[in-house]
Amino acid sequence: MGDASDDQAVRGFLAPIQVGDVCRGVVAAITGSEVTVILDGFAARPLGVVGPLDVSWQRPMADAAVVGQRVTAEVLSVDLEEGRVRLSTAATENPELWAFLQRLRLGQRLTGTVASIESFGVFVALDEGPDHPIYPGVGFITYPELSWRRLEAVSEVVEVGQRVCCEFLQFDTWNGEARLSLRATRPDPFLRFAEGTAVGRRLTGQVTKVLPFGVFVRVADGVEGLVHRSELSAGPVEAPEDVVRVGEEITVVVTDLDRERRRLSLSLRAAT
């Protein structure tokens, strides 16, 4: 920021602005990373900033903003220290969708239909939500949020056209999506497993994956633990595959159980 008087003027102008307010102004400059806006009421310099993904959900930034253009945008955040207001013109471009997403609350249950399965996640057309201007659904589930179990294929859990009930996680303002969790609507098998398991317990499980640093062992339905390479044998191990193979059943001992991180550490050498 500038000198003390300029700082004071900026703070005084920004202080009343709240997240969710609608601001108007003129585009001052466009770079590859942002659009700066001179806000009405403060002509000294641009205080508004629109990120590339907040400009529009329908058009690329180069087509959606022009220097000198008047814009209307919703406030996403206010930084008094930096003297900047983060804005979204995508919000005012899609008011019905934005208003719907703003009303959602963490943990809220939403129903819909699986609209598309992509390599990066699953789109869900929500029953109560409006259409998305670009994507096949307003709801979006990342792969980790599909199931508590490690999946080989998405088809193990969902398919296009399937009805689903999910929990709302967050409003993705960049993409105009409701981030959802399907697994949150189902019991966590790890927590159930942890209730009846303690450090030192012997378990029998199947090796599911062999990696350079160790192997994963399925010890219960939906529960896998890691046997670090150092815990595979009493002697040095150059390669885990020299000791065990995928599909092999082995007996292990629980060495650590982290409920918060959902991590289970196992030892093969302690069991032998």
UniProtKB/TrEMBL annotation:
The keyword Ribosomal protein applies. GO terms for molecular function: mRNA binding; structural constituent of ribosome. SMART domains: S1. Residues 20-90, 107-183, 200-269 form the S1 motif domain. GO terms for biological process: translation. It comes from the Bacteria. The lineage of its organism: Bacteria, Bacillati, Actinomycetota, Actinomycetes, Kitasatosporales. One of its GO terms (cellular component) is ribonucleoprotein complex. SUPFAM superfamilies: Nucleic acid-binding proteins. Belongs to the bacterial ribosomal protein bS1 family. InterPro entries: NA-bd_OB-fold (IPR012340), Ribos_protein_bS1-like (IPR050437), S1_domain (IPR003029). This is S1 RNA-binding domain-containing protein. It comes from Streptomyces coelicoflavus. Binds mRNA; thus facilitating recognition of the initiation point. It is needed to translate mRNA with a short Shine-Dalgarno (SD) purine-rich sequence. The keyword Ribosomal protein applies. Keywords: Ribonucleoprotein, Ribosomal protein. PROSITE patterns: S1.
